[in-house]
Records
---
Amino acid sequence: MNRNSVNWSGPMPATTTPFTSDLQIDEESFLANLSRLFDSGATGMVVAGCTGEFWALTLDERARLAKLAVDASKGRGTTIVGTGSIREEEIIDQIFAAKEAGADGVLVMPPYFARVTDAEIIAHFEAIADRSVLPVVLYNIPGNAGNAITPAIADRLADLDKVVAIKESSGDWNNFQATLNRVKDRIRVFCGPSSIFGVPATLAGADGLIDCFPNVWAPGCLDLWHKTKAGDMEAAWALQETGIALTELFTTGGRTLYPATKAVMNHQGNPGGGHMRPPYRDLDGAPLETLIAGLEKLMPIPAHA
């Protein structure tokens, strides 16, 4: 397998997992959000990833989300399922469950928490690729995982059978550009932080964008791709400016990205928000108040009644 084994491209949102007040998965809200995002121009969905709070989900719940997403995406786009785990056996189990659900591919990150060497990262992905029954998207998010898929490592992993793409979410433009240059001839490259540099990533030759911001900013964040590909650069750069400001707002003032995302979805009256599962807590107090105030300056769209 290689980049030509799949036809994935364009903006594919990293979707939230909404929880009810008793912390159960709100399936109706989950499905309504996917439908809304497809209607707004998404080309696929990435579920049970970081935005989807994979660490707070049981393996059975992840398999259930995969099935829901596959059914919702039929005829509309690609379904990629997150498999976050430190244990290789657990990742393989999730890949088989995603295959059974009918998913198109899986998102696989390096081991997290445990500090591992470059050789151990490579061995980790070799073991997974050797047993995977679905195409694999490498997931570089060192700020969360603690271990990085450097451009040099990506270069090695791009030759593995079953590896067809990478989601580059380092947030470092130089790292993104170096990775793109080294592997784009063999695997597809998706930009993670498109809210920060989705337009230049698209211009540089990225195959698509995978970001959490479409959950709160659609079609705007999706149009970072569509406007750029259409050559409407004035609109594209204006959207990029908004994306940068939103990213700053969501990650400062006592806020982190995922609780802020759900808080804004709830404020907007859109599906897919709901509650956080521990260890996260729902945003409240001054961080919530200043988030909404800042949001209304950037996106003066009234919340639903």
---
Amino acid sequence: MHERTLEQLEGAVWPDPPPRSTGLARAVHALRRRPVGELTPHEPARLIGQQVSLPWLLPSAVRHLHETAPGQATGGFYDDDLLTAVLAVSPEIWSAEPELARGLRDALGSLADLGPHLTEAAEDFLRANP
């Protein structure tokens, strides 16, 4: 999977974005054409935040958040951008993916000091996914 692009994994090639597209739109199109294994840590957050390629990106994002959550309390790195993007995923996706929702709930249970915006988003997620 890591050597394949999201376009290859999905079997869907998007046309080039229109010439007057935003930088974000151009970036999303370009990221879909890069091998998944070459994406830098913040790039999946960008794609997930745009609700792009969720079946391929969301499982690894939740796994990453779950693995790094315990270290956050001791001052370890925690990817707030990725967490923000994942928490913004629509409730319908989480309903269809209860195992992923459970993994994210577990990760959230290990976190502290998220800040007001992330705390509110996490509480909203937990209310919607008991």
---
Amino acid sequence: MSHPLDIVCDESGAEGERLVGGNSDVFTHAAVRMDAASAAACVGELRVRAPTPATEYNACHVLRGKHRAALLWLLGPDGPVLGKVRVCVTDKLFYVVGKIAGLLQEDHAPRLGLDPRARPTAVTLYREGPRAFGPERWTALLDSFNYLLRAKNGQGVTTSVEDTFRLVDALRGAGGQAGEIMEALWRARPRVAAFRERLMADPYVFPALDPLIPAIAGAVRFWSADGPVTVVHDRQTTLTDERIAQLGQLLGGRMAGLRLVDSELDERVQIADVMAGVARRIALDALAGRGDPALTTLIRPYVDPASVWGDERSGDLLIPGEVISR
């Protein structure tokens, strides 16, 4: 009987459930399907083309301007990783907006990722909210819901349903589609309050707002088309034994196991780190309207079409097919 194949993963831009006002607006997660010898050869070639004395190779080394030729080689059609890497790209602000839109579903419950039924509302709010409410009130709304939907507010911040809905009340008169969504959210206040109570009384085993575990689940679903896979992941405090067991149950046998490793000791993880970091930099630049056309084109074949993205302009350039939300 054959052993399950490994998919080796790492992330870039992870800040847990802090999605608003953090260090990066984009989270990426790369899943690599390569054997150890191929990964070692790839890292060895990168060290020739983009040298560094560091013992562990990572994205910052190949992202330096002087090493652009090495980056073009890595991502190019004749490079060593095409067809062997899948990257999930998440716009953190859109992820929060998707969670807000999900609260409008009458049967809303904690779930991995975003509720696909809420996507049209999420896209409308994401694209219309900043203009309708103004930048300051828009950011305040997202920040308030970010804290409200966390199992633990953290950092000494306390956000109540009353605090959050004071903002909703002020925004529901904004008019247009964004104002209509705020009106619907205002009417859903009892449902939101009940959801918050459940979250505090019995926190869901998966953090409601952390995009890491949905990204892992998506990678497993993709790479397990030919049979169960074992996930090999760079060390992450989010991935507790309880959550790993729950994820295995959720994936219905597609995941044979998940083990955490030291990236310095596994060059496959270093490839995942490089691809996640490169994809995040390219996605951030595209989102800010300063994308590099050559790099955006080259990263596109690696990007998961089910990435969580709401910006139409950059999404059309960055993500294959229709931009949809996991």
---
Amino acid sequence: MGAIMFFQMGIGVPSTAGAVSLWSEESHNLFTDHRASQVGDLVTIIISENASTSTSKNSSNSKNGSQNLSAGIGIFDFLSAASASQNDSFNAKGSATNTNTARGTITATVVDVAPNGNLIIEGTQSIWNNKNEHKITIQGIIRPDDITYRNTIPSNKVAEATVKFDGKGPLNAKQRQGIITQIFNFLF
């Protein structure tokens, strides 16, 4: 035991040495969870939506009626025999098919945290191309457990989701009906 103490003293270890951390306050901890969890945090939504609807309707209605009136007798002999009939028929057929696909990514901000811990998110992305604006907006509620380690979440995991794809500019204006056509469509 004496030899060990002698050896430690011989090295000259200062008695006032303090512990120094290898991690400074500014460094990022490798073991910290970087997923969104509070107001102001960002989370990336991976939009991959496919919607398809198909409707087909057939309607038919018909009505037939006939009336016969015999010739009058007695004081009503001036009435001659008469008959009347009516036919009414209606047929209608219609069908509609609609398929939509939306793909992309958008980073949203956590705007509120619900009492149960779910995160309310909102995000808008605006892309300008040749004086045309293409805008993606998303709103909804996400569960923190559904957020991946990369801080992403698929759009099918967003509850009460509202995803809008809007646009404005010369190209989008040409794709709308004119005002006169809109008035005629409204009236007729």
